Amino acid sequence: MAKTHKITLIPGDGIGPEVSGAVVKIVEAAGAATGIGFEWHRYAAGAEAFETTREYIPKALYDSIEENRVALKGPVTTPIGGGFASINVTLRKKFELFANFRPVKSLPGLKTRYPDIDLIIVRENMEDLYAGLEHEVVPGVVQALKIITEKGSTRISQFAFDYARKHNRKKVHAIHKANIMKLSDGLFLRCARKVAEEFPEVAYAEHIVDNTCMQLVMNPYQYDILLTENLYGDILSDLCSAFVGGLGLVPGANLGKECAIFEAVHGSAPDIAGKDMANPTALLQSAVLMLHHIDESATANRIQTALEQVYREGKTLTKDVGGTSGTKAFADAVLQAMEMPQTVSA
């Protein structure tokens, strides 16, 4: 009997149901070919969940993630300047998903300004301004508190260097603004330096965040792993996604000691929802990260190899990357590629 993995699935809203539907179909086909199965526990979140449960994150969803310890999440709309809190941030806090892991790697056959990009952003996921500690002091004056702790900074630094050692990455840059934020970012740097001493085989450097933006645009190849606080990492990960074709291609993982949530980093794009136009690549590559996380690398490699083959051929791509195909046609092309003899992707 095939081994079955229980996965909490949050399809999301906007284009979420379309891309998550395509990804589930591909993951199940890859699993069937490699002898594993999946049991998906589906839950809504955000405005859609509130309509039926009066909760933006239903208790049943919390319970499912706590039980399964792994979730795959499509995009969920977050209101701007009001409304309910970010579902992403709330889930990260709830399950202490302290590491945001965002690999940025070029896909074959896709022409971009910078070929052969291979960067990783390791972003602290719990602190900084995203702690959400803000209040109105007097009308017209709002105060927001930046929270940086030794525990959080050491923990994310350890994660970055552990990953570098395990995967033979050569360099870690700590990204900061310690020239201005001398106490908070200074603490972050002291923790990173201390951890770096335990990994002499990994080169360590520090760049100020505004200079990093310029350096990335001038020469992204000088970087390998970027170790960042929460806000800087959020901004830099979007910047770096442009090197490989945009947010529609880049995966993301939120990792903690007990649970992990894998998600596409793009928005819900309500303007194209239901039009069979969305690119499922970001969520599919997030699912690949998820499969590696649950020790199903053969299934993960099968999907990644097929995905890269579709991009290499360039015949069935979605409009955002210069093609003319829709979501369903793209997913079918990946499924067809999986049926062909494969050379395992590295």
Can you give a write-up of this model?
There is one protein chain. This protein is an alpha/beta fold and 346 residues long. It folds into 2 domains: 1-117 and 245-346, Isopropylmalate Dehydrogenase (3-Layer(aba) Sandwich), CATH 3.40.718.10; 136-242, Response regulator (Rossmann fold). Helix content is 40%, strand content 20%. It contains 11 helices and 12 strands. The protein has helices at 16-34, 47-53, 59-68, 87-94, 150-166, 184-196, 209-218, 230-241, 281-293, 297-313, 327-338, and strands at 3-10, 36-42, 70-73, 99-105, 118-124, 134-138, 141-144, 171-176, 203-208, 225-228, 251-255, 260-264. Strands 2-1-3-12-11-4-5-10-8-9 form a 10-stranded mixed β-sheet, sandwiched between helices. Helix 6 (184-196) links the parallel strand 8 (171-176) and strand 9. Helix 1 (16-34) runs parallel beside helix 11 (327-338).
Number of strands: 12
Taking the sheet with the most strands, its summary is: 10 strands, mixed
Q: What is the CATH class name of the largest domain?
A: Alpha Beta
N→C terminal distance: 28 Å
Q: Could you estimate the helical fraction of the residues in percent?
A: 25-40%
Provide mean pLDDT, rounded: 93
Superfamily at the CATH H level of the largest domain? Isopropylmalate Dehydrogenase
Task: Give the overall shape, derived from the CA principal axes.
Answer: globular
Question: What count of helical segments does DSSP give?
Answer: 11
Which regions are unreliable across 5 or more consecutive residues at pLDDT < 50?
A: none
Fold-level CATH name of the largest domain: Isopropylmalate Dehydrogenase
| Structural domain tally | 2
> What is the annotated CATH architecture of the largest domain?
3-Layer(aba) Sandwich
In N-to-C order, the SSE pattern is EHEHHEHEEEEHEHEHEHEEHHH
Strand order of the largest sheet: 2-1-3-12-11-4-5-10-8-9
- Bin the strand percentage: 15-25%
**Rg (C-alpha, Å):** 20 Å
